[in-house]
Amino acid sequence: MKTKALIAAFIICMAATTRVYSFGVGGQLNFSAGEVFAPGAALVISPNETTHIAVNWFLGSDDRDDVNTICLTFDKTLITLPISTFSAGTFNFTLGAGLFTNFLLSDHDPGFNGGLRIPIGLNVMLGKNIFEIYTHVAPSFGIRFAPSLGLTKPFFPFALGVRVWFG
User: Which of 32, 68, 99, 114 has a beta carbon 3.0–4.6 Å from 39's, enabling a disulfide?
Assistant: First the structure.
């Protein structure tokens, strides 16, 4: 009986929370921007309107072997400025701060790096803020931890994505 009461309390708390906070899920295409960030499709999860987590898994090959790269980004939108409002929604400028990490899984050159990024973007919120189309470029600066310690060259990953918002 206590278990059912705890589950019911949890569901009520989650339902109450989702009315206050939005939850978004979507996908984005990442475009190559140098040697650090791999291109490819990413799953994007946004636990609220200002926090965005992207997981990108790139499968490819070079002239020596197969290469797999897992890229994770965590971005926080700090500024959203409406540029234009129209009958279907709003067009906005966004600016944020974030972190990235990349794991290169390769037989010859495995690697691991991470660092800071500054996402600068545009988005269109449609259908009473239920559907979002966005793009951003994120100047990024990082540290290579493996195979040797050092700084990465600055790079500028570019993404184009869509998100659906719930709550």
Answer: 32
